[in-house]
């Protein structure tokens, strides 16, 4: 039960205020608070997309938070919105956060307590500050991460093509708006609307935002430069009360699990909720849960019941919340270890390829990647329409290998990070392994995709048969009696990741005349599918 409070129009006032930093740059914030009373604890969001929007695509409007007795501050970060300076991405936020927190506490409307909230970039800005900066009283970062490679730009070495390009263009368009370059803004908007950004995205970023984060990450991944920047929050901050929100189909999910682990190892006791959500579509109730968290830690007389459960995971298939005892690191894989078997027809048949628990992997299968008609991405955490989907149409393609278990005679619980170990090589200096894990229904009419994962192999090692490990998106699900578990392998997942052209000479992206046909050979001996813990 959530406490109800009547929101009265006109009971909240707002104004824009400025903070001048030590280097002379002014950061502009919009503040909301009750018309009467105060001072109040502050809820702070620092974001690059426009303070008046206030992330209302996923959060209740600041007036709602203010109506519950808070001073709500949404700040345009340096170089964005109405704030001064030049936007330089993550590297600018540590110092600016430090000064902003000190300033918020000095406001006459603030009682000295600060809670932070926001997702994605707004989640990241909650986590970094200069050494010695006093921590906020509590933090609620959602759908974010600290590793610029695995949490922000790449899966298995493959750049997030659709997401990375679209986000980069959004930031570039914001820059064009600030610079009053209307024609540039319109060009980029048209590219997103028409879908042409998928074909020309790299050139768009080079033209309109050549120093931006998105093109930097794309260039580094294409040139096989290690995107090694891993940001480190202060341990004093990680010890503070923390409310983490993640989604099974959000690309930053591993970042949330890693943040949970960092907090626990630093002596914190974070609360974590992983639910049926994509990056922009959340489940109902998230605002009330966060309000309850803030009331608990920012108000001595919190007016909602304490939320007792520190770990809440949504079961994807049973569609219910579950409460594991902990997310500690087991000494061995979770559940069964599966192997793959085929006599060569796993692409041509839905039934020939087998997923086994009582036998070793055997046989092999050959896939041909035709760049003219690459296997498309559906659902999952990186596609244009993420989420839970039926992928049977994709599995019927002859360039997708399918491995299906026997009909289940009892409920099969799946939990953790699916990991596939398999031998592979190709006839070109590059190939991709795109993996999907699915539940096949009793009538064999639907193949419900639960998790996806990717691996990009580049260079001479692609020509040599060797074992590769592919990590899939974490999951929690139960398959029922009469269903089957299926693992599917494809050589592409366009446009979730760019098409591998089988060469080391070009950026991987949209299909082009120079893209090579790739013959991909899978040796199933020694193959293993197992589940690693969420934290490892």
For the residues shown, what is the average pLDDT?
A: 94
N-to-C span: 35 Å
- By DSSP (H or I, 4+ residues per run), the number of helices equals 11
Task: Give the biggest sheet.
Answer: 7 strands, mixed
**Low-pLDDT stretches:** 302-307
Shape verdict: globular
As a whole number of angstroms, the C-alpha radius of gyration is 24 Å
Summarize the amount of helix as a percent range. 10-25%
**What fraction strand?**
25-35%
Structural class: alpha+beta
Number of strands: 24
Summarize the structure.
With 536 residues, the chain is α+β, with helices and mostly antiparallel strands. The protein is built from 11 helices and 24 strands. About 1% of the residues have low confidence.
Write the layout of secondary structure elements.
Blueprint: E1 12-20, E2 26-34, E3 40-47, H1 62-66, E4 71-76, H2 93-106, E5 110-119, H3 121-124, E6 138-142, E7 154-155, E8 158-159, H4 161-178, H5 182-194, H6 197-208, H7 213-222, H8 235-238, E9 243-249, H9 253-265, E10 271-278, H10 286-298, E11 311-315, E12 320-322, E13 334-342, E14 354-356, E15 362-369, E16 389-390, H11 392-395, E17 401-404, E18 412-426, E19 430-440, E20 447-458, E21 466-471, E22 475-479, E23 484-490, E24 518-532
Parallel strand pairs: 3-4, 3-5, 5-6, 9-10, 10-11, 13-15
Antiparallel strand pairs: 1-2, 2-4, 7-8, 11-12, 13-14, 13-24, 15-24, 16-20, 17-23, 18-21, 18-22, 18-24, 19-20, 19-23
């Amino acid at each position: 039960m959530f406490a109800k409070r009547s929101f009265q129009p006109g009971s909240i006032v707002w104004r824009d205020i400025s903070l001048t930093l030590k280097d002379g740059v002014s950061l502009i914030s919009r503040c909301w608070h009750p018309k009467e009373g105060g001072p109040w604890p502050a809820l702070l969001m620092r974001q690059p997309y426009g303070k008046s929007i206030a992330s209302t695509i996923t959060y209740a409007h600041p007036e709602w938070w203010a109506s519950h007795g808070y001073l709500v501050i949404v700040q345009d970060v340096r170089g964005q919105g109405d704030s001064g300076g030049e936007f330089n991405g993550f590297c600018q936020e540590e110092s600016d956060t430090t000064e902003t927190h000190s300033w918020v506490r000095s406001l006459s409307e603030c009682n000295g307590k600060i809670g932070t909230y926001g997702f994605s970039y707004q989640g990241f800005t909650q986590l970094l500050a200069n050494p010695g900066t006093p921590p906020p009283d509590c933090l609620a970062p959602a759908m974010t991460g600290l590793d610029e490679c695995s949490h922000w730009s790449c899966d298995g070495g493959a750049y997030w093509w659709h997401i990375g390009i679209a986000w980069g263009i959004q930031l570039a368009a914001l820059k064009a708006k600030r610079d009053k370059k209307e024609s540039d803004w319109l060009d980029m908007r048209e590219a997103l609307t028409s879908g042409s950004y998928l074909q020309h995205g790299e050139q768009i970023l080079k033209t309109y935002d050549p120093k931006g984060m998105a093109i930097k990450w794309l260039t580094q991944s294409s040139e096989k430069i290690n995107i090694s920047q891993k940001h480190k929050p202060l341990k004093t901050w990680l010890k503070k009360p923390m409310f983490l929100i993640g989604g099974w189909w959000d690309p930053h999910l591993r970042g949330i699990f890693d943040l949970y682990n960092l907090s626990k190892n630093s002596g914190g006791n974070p609360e974590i909720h992983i639910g049926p959500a994509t990056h922009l579509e959340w489940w109902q109730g998230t605002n009330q849960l966060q309000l309850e968290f803030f009331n608990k830690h920012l108000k001595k007389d919190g007016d909602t019941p304490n939320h007792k459960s520190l770990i809440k995971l949504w079961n994807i298939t049973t569609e219910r919340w579950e409460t594991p005892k902990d997310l500690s690191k087991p000494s061995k894989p979770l559940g069964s270890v599966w192997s793959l078997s085929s006599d060569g027809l796993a692409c041509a048949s839905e039934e020939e390829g087998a997923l086994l628990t009582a036998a070793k992997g055997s046989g092999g299968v050959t896939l041909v990647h035709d760049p003219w008609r690459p296997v498309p991405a559906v659902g999952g955490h990186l596609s244009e329409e993420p989420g839970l989907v039926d992928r049977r149409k994709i599995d019927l393609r002859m360039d997708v290998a399918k491995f299906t278990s026997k009909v289940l005679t009892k409920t099969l619980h799946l939990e953790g990070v699916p990991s596939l170990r398999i031998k592979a090589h190709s006839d070109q200096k590059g190939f991709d392994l795109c993996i999907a894990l699915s539940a096949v229904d009793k009538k064999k009419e639907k193949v419900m995709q639960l998790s996806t994962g990717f691996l990009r192999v580049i260079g001479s090692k692609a020509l040599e048969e060797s074992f590769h490990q592919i990590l899939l998106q974490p999951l929690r699900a139960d398959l029922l009696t009469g269903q089957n578990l299926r693992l599917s392998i494809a050589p592409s997942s366009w446009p979730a990741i760019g098409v591998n052209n089988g060469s080391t000479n070009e950026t991987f992206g949209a299909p082009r005349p120079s893209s090579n046909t790739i013959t991909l050979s899978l040796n199933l001996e020694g193959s293993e599918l197992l589940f690693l813990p969420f934290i490892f």
